[in-house]
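As a warm-up, study this chain.
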Amino acid sequence: MSNPRRPGKSPTTVLRRIPKQERSKDRVSEILRVSADLIGEKGIDAVTMKEIGSRTGGPIASVYQYFPDKEAIVASLYEQYVSETRFILKGAVGNILTADDAVMAAELLVDAYYEVMRQGPSAIDIMNAIKASKVLAQQDLLETRLQVEDFYEATAHFVQEGRRDQYKTTLTLLFNMADASVRLALMRPQREASDILERFKEIVRVQAAYFLLGEFPEKLSSSASKVHARAQ
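Now compare it with the structure written out below.
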């Protein structure tokens, strides 16, 4: 999903050489596919540029021709992930017509993010590599902030004006918590993963209903009201 407001690297600017011919584009795509598979199999630290070149059926020089190092490969894989999450977010906010739609979209985004992350076995390793890189971690924080702003802009008019600053802060917390919750779920057995996601979505549901509908969900109204009463 393109957005002219967004600074930062595009999928091609992390490359040493921008592929123009179809054969070159196919070569870059193959390098990224193989890199993702190897990272999923062995972890980012155990993968070497030489092994990537060998697995893709070409000399290591052909990998360095496009990527100066592993971090550049991780950055390109991250851009693929960002493109998917931006597309999902755009679809979610584009369908919001009512406050109830906004509450539902907040929950659905958690499921959609989980599905994106679980598609490849390398997702956790790639995200861990991003968190370990100062440059990429800052880029990820910026991307999260921009996505928070997109969701806020699409939904803030449902929120009482006096609560909007608190709402934006809460969105920032929830978007960052979503990353941690999904990563935790991906590292656990399926049944436990489902419980983790359901509990997190319950938190999202309570907060979204409070700000967007002006009330807590009926099943959770008693306990949620006590939590907010203690916090105020």
